[in-house]
Amino acid sequence: MSSELQLKGLVKTYQSAQGPVQAVRGIDVSIAAGETVALLGPNGAGKSTTIDMMLGLTRPDSGSVTVFGRSPRDAVAGGLVGAMMQSGELIRDLSVRELVAMMASLYPRPMDVEELISLAGLTEAAGQRTQKLSGGQSQRVRFAVALVGDPELLVLDEPTVSMDVEGRREFWAAMRAYADRGKTVIFATHYLEEADANADRAVLMAHGRIVADGPTTEIKAQVGTKTIRATLPEVDVAELAALPGVATAERRGESVILRCSDSDRAIRALLERHPAARDVEITGAGLEEAFLELTGGDGDAGAHVSGRVSSPP
Amino acid sequence: MSAVTYTRYELLRAFRNRRYFFFSLGIPLVLYFVIAGPNRNVHDFDGTGISLPLYYMVSLASFGTMFAMVSSGGRIAAERQAGWTRQLRITPLPVRAYFRAKMLTSYMTAVTSLVLLYIAGASLGVSLPARDWLEMSGLIVVALLPFGALAILLGHLMTVESIGPIAGGTVSLLAIVSGTWFPATGFLHTVGQWLPSYWLVQAGRVTLEGHGWGTQGWAVVIAWTALLAALAALAYRRDTGRV
Fold first, then answer.
1. ipTM score over 0.85, yes or no
2. What predicted TM-score, i.e. pTM, was given to this entire model?
3. How distant is the Cα of B172 from the closest Cα of chain A, in angstroms?
């Protein structure tokens, strides 16, 4: 299996008002052609900086990136790369169809504009000016723009941020259809569920480093612990900690918090033995917490982890 | 792959942005009618032997086209802010083709502004031999090159908020120093001769005063074009970050 995307010893430090921030601190990844890889991590993990370096938008301080054996810039110039970047907006005063056609004209082997418009679910919006689109429609246009050159490598930086549930479902279906054509796809996300459902492999990042890299099923087992929270006064925490599937138990006033190795078994046992439990909630552990555990909780100065990791709405 | 299609859509976008297009064209036209309209029968303006409508048609041709060229920098700043410039960078569009499209967009507005001012001048009784119209227009088009480069430079350096006052201030200052509104004398004149805007004004006056740019004029315009284009290229290359 040949490596189509290779990141070696990547390091990038930014100057900020608070001093230097080490966004990326030594990353080594090889991705083979046809793989779909999730770059998973909380905000501030270094995902976007890594993506910028893959695309040749940022030069690493040290280390190297090769895309299909070329420098990122050469790969981009050859039309091999398509990307949907975080927080981009569309230029105004063109219709969706015109914008897609304009972008298509820049590539050596573009997709058919009409075909792409229907693939991206934009048939109805095709004649509308870009400044009049809804947030979800804009995202779809940005997806179409990423695909228009029929790239071998598709890079998506938190692509579903402003989409509703239905939009997300359609988006991932279109992405998988693209990946099924043997294309390489890399997407950044902070939703474990998105990585699990749409990628073969997940690369976990925290504090600018890779903390785990493997098939999504393994990664999920590693970080996918769940927490049960319930209102249950007057029960000894030691008794709760001994329930099957429960790893640790903690009391906070009237509430108890159970961290579970197997939440299905734990919830059955809890409700069976303590029917008085009410306001029961099961939540996925934040990736952030999972990462802190994986990295041994090192609170490295400079690369603070901000933003909560949560489940998609 | 053709940058022609890209350029065509860029022109279409500029044309469709009514506020930008009409503002760029409207201001010089309004100024012209305000100044020259009431004085249409002044045939010997300030002892120059030139009619006032002609004098100010030429002044506003240089001011209006300079204004139109430099304002297009604001469009670049807005595209950067939207993250669109980064999107373009990950396409095979070569830098040269990008610059050419931006330059042509500026020229489209500037040339439209020029033609409208000529029509406005003619409506106030200005008439010149065809040769003079052509010579004047040709030199103006050449003298606008450094301003097209300046627009790209400012567009990649400034934010959307800062570019308005900076571009407007620069154009106004250059117009005064270069003798657009009244002939600059003494120190102002000495300094002005080293600025491309002076030769832009002279491009219009060429027909009135009957002498061409001469070596200095060409040298100043070419040197500023080269310098500003180099700086614009540098600014574009450095400007890869998220805005």
1. no
2. 0.79
3. 29
